[in-house]
Amino acid sequence: MSETILKTEAIHTFIGQHHILQGVSFEARADAVTVLIGRNGAGKSSTLKTVMGLLPASEGKIIFKGKEIQSRKPYDIARLGIGFVPENMGIFADLTVEENMQVAMLREDAATAERLESVLEMFTALRDFWRAKAGILSGGQKQMLAIARAIINDTALLLIDEPTKGLAPIIINALIDAINQIKQHSVVVLVEQNFYMASSVGDYFFILDDGKVVHSGAMAELVQDEEMQSKYLGISKSV
Amino acid sequence: MAQTILKQWGSKLAIAGAIVLYLLPLLGMDFSTYMTLTIAGLAMGMMLFLVASGLSIIFGLMDVINFAHGVCFAYGAYVAFSVFKYLNAWVTADSVFLNFGIFFIAIVAAFIVVAVVGMVVERVLVRRVYGSHLFQILITFGGMVVLTELIRIIWGPNDEVMPKPVSFAGNWNIFDIIILKYPIYAIALGLIVYAVIQLILKKTKVGKIVRAGVENPEMVQAMGHNIFLIFTGVFAVGAGLAAVGGLTMAIFNLQVYPDMGGAYLIFAFIIVIIGGLGSVTGSLVGALIVGLSYNYVAYLLPSLAVGVNILIMVIILLIKPTGLFAAGK
Q: Using alpha carbons only, what angle is made at residue A187 by residues A184 and A191, rounded to the nearest 5 degrees?
């Protein structure tokens, strides 16, 4: 079994009075894509935000590469090598594509320049709109930019929140290809409701329900288990 | 059809309408008076721009309503007053070099001192109330009162006469139009500051991070940038710019007084709302609208001078609730 790069141990998170995460434990293994799945409001996005430090964990531990990070600030966590793509993509619409990438770069050295070249090869549309304001990009192009920003540094772990939301099937296939490429270099934790996407790229899954992990295992098992898909993901048997 | 025309020509129609509107005062005065008022209006606009640009970026980036911003304006004026008093020989010397030298020294001193004051205000007061507008209003209003009283303790409670460097007095007569020298210098200073701010925001990494932060501060943090350090820096620069506005206004009005910050804060808020939160260009345009309107109306209908700016703000808010140039949140 490969090494665990990220581990959460019984994390609890509140948003105002609401107890959103009620002891979420999961782990992400190196050389694998881990998918957090579940219905709306299950706590998937809050889990990623808590790992990133954007929501404070009131209890529990978050361990990244052997170090506890639950009390660190988001900018410290990002500098440890964790990239984050939020659900709304977090694009800076008034900045150009180039400026969006520059803001994301923590260093401007030869290694970053090399990574930029490979990112632009992966997402060629970004090169075409390099000097354009990011606000004019299509939904798929914005998602590409969001992912490109998150992997421009030496990213050991990439957290992506629902990248397929609102995208056309052809774009989803392009994203699947991209994530399969990214996983060669970085560990990926993906929050996804689109089971086609989740099963196409995921190696392991954790199902969240009401702020808790209720099932986990290898993605191949979940693909076979139609009862679990129906119970927790609302996917009905094909007729 | 009408919507398409409005979309394509809306901004051009608005500019044309504004030009016509600002030529209207010519019906009630001669051309020479109109030009004098226009230059005074542009100068006032530029001085107000210095106050409002910092307030706008602080508001846009940090979502902080800062009532203590006006007091930075007053501190800038008082620091310059002290510098002028200390180096009075440079102020009264019949030398353009020494006069501009003391003006430059006063700008640098006021900017640095007030930037440090701004940094302390952010660290001690504002940082505790991020996210709560009500507490921000209360605590920064309290800060404004305390800092204004501190002016009375340090410099005394009375109004003081602000000296004007010798070369800044007088005027030029161009085709029988009397053009005062100092407003022209103030306009030039405002334009230089605008150009420098734009250069920093558009060409430097930190400027791009600030612009990104105005749109989405959470995402900027998630990219590894210490947003609190950026907040402190922006607060300090915003305070420093208000200080420069304060000293230029004090030289223009030839006086400093402890409550002068509050008097101009209302204009700064009107400008920020007209221009749009977080936009430096919006602050410039808003400040010029306010400066020109104030001067024309103060000449024609003095009692409506402030009211007309509030009316313009209401009209712009009705047409474009985010202000003229709001940064894309």
A: 120
Q: Which residues pair with B205 in a beta bridge?
A: none
Cα–Cα distance, A228 to A222 (Å, whole number): 7
Query: A54, B328: Cβ pair inside 8 Å?
Result: no
Strand A18-29 to strand A4-15: parallel, antiparallel, or no bridges (unpaired)? antiparallel
pLDDT digit string (tens) for A173-228?
Answer: 888 999 999 988 889 999 988 888 888 899 999 999 999 999 999 998 888 888 88
Give B198-214 pLDDT, tens digit per residue.
999 999 999 999 999 88
Fold of A4-233: Rossmann fold (3.40.50)
pLDDT at residue A71 in the model = 93
d(CA B257, CA B160): 6
B131: its two tokens = 């996210």
Q: What's the rounded Cα separation, in Å, for the pair A168 and B75?
A: 57
Contact B224 A94 (CB under 8 A): no
B132 contact residues in A (CB cutoff 8 A): none
| Residue A236 CB neighbours (<10 A) | 9
Spell out where chain A has E strands: 4-15, 18-29, 33-37, 57-64, 67-68, 82-85, 157-161, 187-191, 204-209, 212-218
Domain residue ranges of chain A, discontinuous segments joined by +: 4-233
**Percent of chain B topping pLDDT 90:** 51
* Contact yes or no for A24/A213 (Cβ under 8 A): yes
